[in-house]
From TrEMBL:
InterPro entries cross-referenced by the UniProt entry: ADH-like_C (IPR013149), ADH-like_N (IPR013154), ADH_Zn_CS (IPR002328), GroES-like_sf (IPR011032), NAD(P)-bd_dom_sf (IPR036291)
MF terms (GO), sorted A to Z: oxidoreductase activity; zinc ion binding
Listed name of the protein: Glutathione-dependent formaldehyde dehydrogenase
Family per record: Belongs to the zinc-containing alcohol dehydrogenase family.
The Alcohol dehydrogenase-like C-terminal domain, residue ranges: 188-266
Cofactor section: Zn(2+)
Domain of life: Bacteria
PROSITE patterns in the record: ADH_ZINC
Species name: Pseudoduganella armeniaca
Length: 394
């Protein structure tokens, strides 16, 4: 099969690899029809995630058709069109029983750090991902969800990570009616966090970034105010000026370890790796939120330490919440929002690229070229199926 193949930092290509096979009676094989490149894939692409091995296939956001099921799979059948949450989870451990699917204790040998994730290094279980023609889906009765007939496939693929992660970011902020919410990051997750903040009752939403085309997009898509941090001397002071000197009620970190905006953080983080990435946005969140406010973190950081102003958080009485999204928990509510027309996820897709051109797709997304916000990879078999269907209709 054709699959994305990681060859080292900033080097990926499309290669032919052996087709995945059923390894356990609970497995399914899914023929991928859509796979996104996620902002967190860029942390792998840039060589910032430990134990990312040459030969790995990335991709934790994908949808497809069930091609084969193991003998113990009872809830899926061949031909089902499914979306697959990025979490690999068992559904039965202590954490899954509490719907903390991102913290599953049975799907990653290093589960004390994180649960299993498709295509996200051996620190997350070493599973191959969905930027390929086929993917093995373990515990297939638990994770995959059959896509409702009235849900567009492009909306479905964004329900595997980006939208639920943005939604959970807003949820963890515990937004009260009328709250001022500041979202750091105008990438897909930040865009969905801003949109979700309104759904949860925010009275004011402000998004911070430095990429003008993304700020223009989120201003229109999420009807929010925007700040270009390149035009601000002191972020915390600026936010306080905008909020009657109190600070925001809720601050959301939707950026993570590759945040720009502070030369020392960039030097000690992504460049020299003296800490687990740049902590710039963590500083901005803690220092910009009001006393007694909430900080929600969904930006990805490495497993080692970051230097953060924890004393400021203590003295301000802040609540800090963070986690990988529990995608499956959010699906019923988010599908309802999409079907009701309250949110249209597919609007953020700017690029649809053949899987064969995965190297160009990563370069465009990583370098923020061509006004790229979200890239979807389409395998050749999916394109052929669509072409046959179009011919039949004609």
């Amino acid at each position: 099969m054709l699959a994305m193949n990681y060859r080292g930092p900033y080097r990926v290509r499309a290669d032919h690899k052996p087709d995945p096979v059923i390894e356990h009676p609970g497995d399914a094989i899914v023929r991928v029809t859509r796979a996104c490149i996620c902002g967190s894939d860029l942390h792998l692409y840039h060589g910032l995630v430990p134990d990312t091995r040459v030969g790995t296939t990335f991709g934790h956001e994908f949808v497809g058709i069930v091609e084969e099921v193991g003998s113990e799979v009872t809830k899926l059948k061949v031909g089902d069109h499914v979306l697959v949450p990025f979490n690999v989870f068992c559904g039965s451990c202590f954490f899954c029983q509490r719907e903390l699917y991102g913290n599953c204790h049975n799907t990653n040998p290093q589960a004390s750090a994180v649960g299993g994730i498709y295509g996200y290094s051996h620190t997350a279980g070493g599973y191959d991902g969905g930027q390929a023609e086929f993917v093995r889906v373990p515990m297939a009765d638990v994770g995959p969800t059959v896509i409702p007939a009235d849900l567009h496939e492009d909306d479905a693929v964004l329900l595997t990570d980006a939208l639920p992660t943005g939604y959970q970011a807003a949820e963890m902020g515990d937004i009260a009616e009328g709250d001022t919410v500041v979202v750091f990051g105008a990438g897909p997750v930040g865009i969905f966090a801003a949109k979700s903040a309104w759904l949860m009752g925010a009275g004011r939403v402000i998004v911070v970034d430095h990429v003008e085309y993304r700020l223009d997009f989120v201003r229109r898509y999420a009807q929010c105010e925007v700040i270009n941090f390149r035009e601000v001397d002191d972020m915390a002071l600026h936010i306080k000026k905008m909020t009657d000197w109190l600070g925001a009620d809720v601050c959301i970190d939707a950026v993570g370890c590759e945040a720009a905006g502070n030369a020392m953080q960039t030097l000690t983080g992504p460049y020299t790796m003296l800490q687990a990435g740049s902590a710039t946005v963590l500083h901005w969140c803690i220092n910009s939120v009001r006393k007694g406010g909430n900080v929600s973190i969904v930006g990805v950081y490495g497993p080692t330490f970051n230097a953060v102003p924890i004393g400021n958080a203590l003295n301000k009485g802040l609540t800090l919440r963070m986690n990988q999204a529990s995608v499956k928990r959010h699906l019923p509510r988010l599908i309802e929002h999409i079907q009701a027309g309250r949110i249209d996820p597919k609007q953020i897709i700017t690029h649809r690229v053949p899987l064969e051109e995965v190297a160009d797709a990563y370069h465009i997304f990583s370098s923020k070229l061509d006004n790229c916000i979200k890239t979807v990879l389409i395998p050749p078999s999916a394109r052929q199926t669509r072409a046959v269907a179009a011919t039949a209709l004609n």
